[in-house]
Each structure stands twice: as C-alpha cells, then as structure tokens.
Amino acid sequence: MIKEIIKDQFVLSQKSKPATKDDLYIIQDLLDTIQEYDNHCVGIAANMIGELKTIMVVNDEGHYIVIVNPVILKKSGKLYETNEGCLCHIGVKTTKRYEKIKIEFLDENLKKKIKTFTGFTAQIIQHEMDHFEGILV
C-alpha cells in the first residue's frame, strides 16, 4: 500500500529497531511507496512511512533491493562530501559518504547476504542507514 511520507522531525529522529519476520509486511508498503515517488526517490527507509524498523528499499539502477537489518562490515574508498535531498524535508543537506561499503543484511526472505556496494548505491544505503539512527540528512 502506498504510504504517506512522514515529515515530523520528532518521529524521524527516533532510532529504529531490528525487524523480525512479523515486520515483513512493511516491505510491500516500502516497494509501493518508492514506486509512487520513482521520479525523485532512490531509497526509502521504514521510518519514512511511520515504521521504526531497520528495513529499506533501494533503487539500484532500476532494480529494487530490499535490505533488512543491515550492518556495515567495512567502509573503504574515498570519503567524499556530497549534497543529498530527502522526501522528508525540503532542500538538500551536505554530508560525507564513503565510496564503497560492505554490508551484511537479510533479503526479503530473511536470507542472510553479504554484499559490497559502490558509488551512488553505496551512498543511498548510507543515507537510509542514517534514517535508522534518527539522523536526518
């Protein structure tokens, strides 16, 4: 179901909790919502639709990746400064991101995966992981 994007800074500043199998329904809501905003949204975290769980969906060059309970195992490459926007607020903010990250996560079937992401996809994942910590970029 397409959900409304939360803009309440108090709600968005709260930390998310790890997702369980009981939270998997959130994945479909995230997929429906990111597709609704496809022309200007490349990633969405569960707290953006009011669910304080560590689930995100990322558009990786036209393919949606579901990432549940991610943990960054390694950051590498150049730490660079970039400007990012978010559906949760107006405008862009400056932040720093790593070029490459290696993460451990669960997929939509709760199957454990370890994968390295680079470039823009790595940047999106880092942005959504900030959401999990209540950091608004």
- Series of secondary-structure elements, N-terminal to C-terminal: HHEEEEEH
* Intertermini distance: 25 Å
- Tell me about the biggest sheet? 5 strands, antiparallel
Order of strands in the sheet with most strands: 1-2-3-4-5
Strand fraction band? 35-45%
CATH architecture call: Alpha-Beta Complex
Q: What's a quick, concise take on this entry?
A:
With 137 residues, this protein is an alpha+beta fold. Helices cover 22% and strands 42% of the residues.
Give short descriptive properties of this protein.
single chain, 137 residues, alpha+beta, Peptide Deformylase, 5-stranded antiparallel sheet, 3 helices, 42% strand
What does this structure look like?
This protein has helices at 9-12, 25-36, 119-132, and strands at 43-45, 55-60, 63-86, 89-106, 112-118. The chain has 137 residues and is an alpha+beta fold. The protein has a single domain (9-132), classed as Peptide Deformylase, CATH 3.90.45.10. The protein has a 5-stranded antiparallel β-sheet with strand order 1-2-3-4-5. Strand 4 and strand 5 (112-118) form a beta hairpin. The longest helix has 14 residues, at 119-132. The mean pLDDT is 96.
Question: What is the strand and helix layout of this fold?
Answer:
Layout: H1 9-12, H2 25-36, E1 43-45, E2 55-60, E3 63-86, E4 89-106, E5 112-118, H3 119-132
Antiparallel strand pairs: 1-2, 2-3, 3-4, 4-5
